[in-house]
Amino acid sequence: MQQLENRDNESEYSLTPHVIRNDFPVFRQRIHGKPFIYLDNAASTQNPTSVIERVKKYYEEEHSNVHRGVHTLSQRATESFEKSREVVRSFLNAKSTKEIIFVRGTTEAINLVAKTYGKQILSAGDEILISGLEHHSNIVPWQILCNETGARLKVIPINKKGELILDELPKLLTNRTRLLAVVHISNALGTINPIEYLIKEAHKKGIPVLVDGAQSAPHIPIDVQKLDCDFFAFSGHKLYGPTGIGILYAKEHLLESMPPFQGGGDMIKSVTFEKTIYNDLPFKFEAGTPNVSGAIGLAEAINYITRIGMDTIAVFEKTLVHYATKRLLECNDVRIIGESKEKGGVISFLVGDVHPHDIGTILDEEGIAVRTGHHCAQPVMQFFGIPATARVSFGIYNTKEDVDHLIEGLKKIKKVFN
Length: 418
Ligand code: C6P
Description:
Bound molecules: ligand C6P
CATH class of the largest domain: Alpha Beta
Distance between the termini: 41 Å
CATH topology of the largest domain: Aspartate Aminotransferase, domain 2
Strand order of the largest sheet: 4-10-9-8-7-5-6
């Protein structure tokens, strides 16, 4: 992996973004008359034709409710839906499809764990440990739970590079810690946390670990058995798939011990007014009609990226981040926020004292989409004493020319504000 880092010629990678780009119809359009450059992949990635076509086929030939009908379409829909679960299982290398729960996205996955597992195990005085790098989705559900139970939220601090201060970990993992909930790759800074180490340290003290994989699953290989994490969450719309679909992986014995999240159809075996017997896993956690087309689209997206290869994607994106970092640092006035040694495909930055929203607006006029704001990680911004950053985040269709256009756009910004 390391050898490829400094190579400049695309033909030397096994991934060719100029070719991959053709699989994504969104790039056929121009934005403000300019070629469209999409650098907001941490927010949502674009969908390849194969995903769009698969969802279309579902609606044209298979659409029906799942697990309910004997008629042909219901059986087709059920078969495709359950095949999709197997695709996700294989992608994460989970032991069983019983461990794969379809949810709306990372946010819902974490809330599910907080409202079921969290509520069941927490008492007043217990502790939940998170980190200073979390997205609001991995802060607020735990705060709500702490308010309800009298438990306390503790935080692994970060340093000025945007890395976790690991020396603090031993004293933060106490005999009252009931869960470590931690982000794998920071959406605000790009920091890749040493997730294997964190999981090992927590497990030494018998503490289960939830991994927020929203920014890792689409970009690096994930093996939940190797990681030995207890819970893992990610979203389809950040993985070249549809919105409104995501995955909660959890170890089977934990799911068995947890109460249901929501009540309704499909999550039951039998119901009387006196008593309900819940369904087997994974259906116990999937009340109501699920997002069938979303699950099928997600599986197609997984098939698409696994055909390219997750190792290949990881190497390619690392190379692009190195190149973009180098080019950004060549610009006077650009300050990169987050300089962790291990970084994913996300770079947050400031340009002089130009407000990030102005950076975003001027780049948009150049056809370049970046995200600006606090990135739903306000505590990270508070740590750096800034309200917002501009953020570029990469995907498999981004090229070095995209980065070069970004740099030209930043030069225009400097001209405008000088
Ligand atoms: N981050 C970003 O632009 P949902 O919205 O449920 O699909 O994902 C929430 C979420 C949870 N954890 C991390 C690390 C995330 O990055 C996100 C979503 C987007 O950075 C939208 S704020």
